Amino acid sequence: MGHAVASVTTRAIDADFALIGHQESWQAAADVLAVLRGPERTPLPDGEIKDILPWIPPRAVCHVDIESIVRTKNGGAKAHGLYIDSFIPPDRLEAAYVHENIARVRAAAASAIQAGAKIVGLGGFSSILIEGNFDQLPERHGTVFTTGNTLTVAFIVQGIQKMCALEGRDISRSTLLIVGATGDVGSGCARCLAPLVRRVLLSARNAERLRRLAAELEADGVQVEIATDLQRFSAEADVVICAASLASPSLLLGRIAPYAIVCDAGYPKNLSPTAEMPDAKVFFGGLGQITGGMRFTPNFHGVLNRHPFPDVVHGCLLEGMALALEHRFEPFSQGRGFITQERVEKIETIAARHGIYLAPLYNADGPVEDGTSLPHGMIEGSIFRLKEKRPCAQM
Amino acid sequence: MEPLIGVNCSAIECTSLSTSAPIWQDILAQAMTGELLAAMNYASLSEICEDPAEVADALEHSECERGHAAAFAAEGRKIGVEVCNNVDAKHWKRLREAFLRCVTERDFIGCLIVQEIMLESFAVASYSRVGKVGPGSLGATFARIAAEEGEHVDHAMSILRAERARNAQRFDDKVYRLHLDVMTTLAQMLAKECKDGHCEVCHASCVKPSLSEVSLSAAELRGASLQQYLKTLDMLGIPGEVTLRWVTQLPV
C-alpha cells in the first residue's frame, strides 16, 4: 500500500531520569492497577490481577516530577522522570525465574532508553538482577544506569546511627551483624560501619565471598568473624542489618539479643512476619525523603511510595534522582563490591544538597519516631560529618 | 451485513476423532470466523483505496485470509469435525460494524488500526499459543498462520508510523477512539467466562472451561493477546504509560 513512510522519532519524552521498579506484593500490584483503571471502575478481582499482571510488558506507569531545595530564578531546581514498572509478578522473584526477570528488567531498561532518560535508577530486585550483568542491558544511546546502592548504604548507615542515638546506645561499643554481607549493599555497609563498632560479624551464603570481604576488612585493621549459617550470630549482635537478597520476607533470625537494633534493608523485606524478636528495635532501612517535593502524574502518591511519611523513596531510586538534580548523569553505582566510605560520603553530599535526607524511621507497626526531631547531638544528612544544614522550611 | 463467505476446501480424509476434537472444533470455528471477517474487511477496504496498488494489496490480503479460513476448515476435517463459522455472531458482528464505520468514513488509517493493530494482535497472539499446543498439522497450521498474520502487521506498521509522525496527538486520539469501540468487544470475547450468554460460534456450550484439556486457558489467550496489542502499540510509538491505562480499563 503506497503511503509514504516518514522517519519516526524514537526518543519521545527526553526524561532527566527513569526509575525501574516492581511491586513487592499482590496488594501493591492491585493498588497500581486500581489507579490506572480510575475511580469510576470497580477494582479488578484478585484472581484477574494474578492472571493479567504477568502478561503486562515492562513500561512507564507514570511521570515523576521532583524539586530540589536549591533555588533558581524559577524556584527550586526541578527534574522530570518516569517510573517504569518491570511488572515482575510478586510471586516470581525466586531464582527459578531469574532469566525471565532479567529479560523484564532489560525491557524496562529499553523503555527508559526509548524515553530518552539521561540516568536510570534500578530499584530493589532490579539492581540485584543486573548489578553483575550490566553488559546485559540494551545499547544505551547516552543513557546511564545506576543501581543506587551507594545512597542506599548511606541511608542504612545513617539509620543505624540515628536509631543508636534514639536508643541512647554508644555505637562504638556495639557488636554489628550484617546478614547478606557479601552483596553490594551488605559489603558497603560493612566497609562504612566496621571501623565504627567494637565487633563485626558477617553472614552470607557464599563462603568464598565472605572470606574475601573479611580479608579486605582485616587488611584495614578490623577483626571480623564470618558464618554461612545466617542464624549463627543472631544472639550475639546488638546491631543487626538484614541485607540479604531474598524473594520474600522469610528470614528468621532465631534468638535475637534483647533490645537489639535491627535494620531490615531488603527489598522485598528480609524479615519474616512470623519472626519473633521481642524487645528488638526494628526499622526499615535504606529509605530517604525528598524534602523539595515529588509529584506523580497520574497521582500514585501512597501507592508507589507506601510509607507512613510523605515523599519517602528507597535510596536506590533516590540516587538517580539526586544525580539528575545535580546534572551529574554518571553511572555512580555499578557492579558489586565497589561501595566505599568515600563514595558514600560523596553521594550523601549530593543528595543533601538537594534536600534528600534520611527518611524518618518506621517499621511494620508504624513510625518509630515522629519524624520532626532528632536527638541532641545527632548529625543530620551525613554519616561521618556535617556537610549540609537541613533547611527547616522544607518538611 | 454482507453474506457469509463460502470456503472452498478440498476434501481431506478424516484421520482421527479424539476426545478433544469438540474443543478443537470450537477453537477452529473461532479462528475461521475471524479469518473470514478479516477477508471481508480487506475486501471492504479495497473499495476505499485510491491507489490501484493499494486496491491490489487489499484484495490480495483478503484472498490470503480466505485461504487461512480454508486451512482451518481443512484441519477440522482431518480430526473428523465440521468447522462452522458465523461472522454474524454477536461479538464478531460488532467488530465488523466497527470496521465498516471506518469504511463509511473512508478512513483508510482507521481501517488499518482496527484490522492490523487490534484484530491481528489478537490473531497473532492466540494462534501462536494454539500453535504451541495443537497436535500435529493442526498446531503447525496455527503457527504458520500466526507468522503470516505477523507479516501483515509489519506491512501496515510503516504506514501507521508515518501517519503518526504527521500528527501524533491526532493519531493517538483516533487509536483511542477505536480502542474503546473494538478492544472493548475483544475484551468481552477474551474474558475468562462468557458472562453475557453464548457467543454464537461455539457449537455447544462455551469452550472456555474446557480449554485446559488441550493445555490452553482463556486467561492465557487473553493475556497473550493484550500483551501483543501493547507491544504493537509500542512499535507505533504511543507512550507506554498511556496504552497501559487503556488496557487496564478494559472490561474483564
What keywords describe this structure?
heterodimer, A: 395 residues, alpha/beta, six-stranded mixed sheet, six-stranded parallel sheet, 17 strands, globular, disordered C terminus, B: 252 residues, mainly alpha, 8 helices, disordered N terminus
Low-confidence stretches of chain A: 1-11, 373-395
Provide the residue-averaged pLDDT of chain B: 90
Topology order of chain B in helix (H) and strand (E) letters: HHHHHHHH
Q: In what order do the strands lie side by side in the largest sheet of chain A?
A: 5-4-1-3-2-13
Q: What form of chain A results from the Cα inertia axes?
A: globular
| Anisotropy-based shape of chain B | globular
Largest interface: A-B, 34 and 37 residues
Enumerate how many helices of chain B there are, as a single number. 8
Main sheet attributes: strand count, strand direction, barrel closure of chain B = none
Give the proportion of residues in helices of chain B: 55-70%
Strand content of chain A: 15-25%
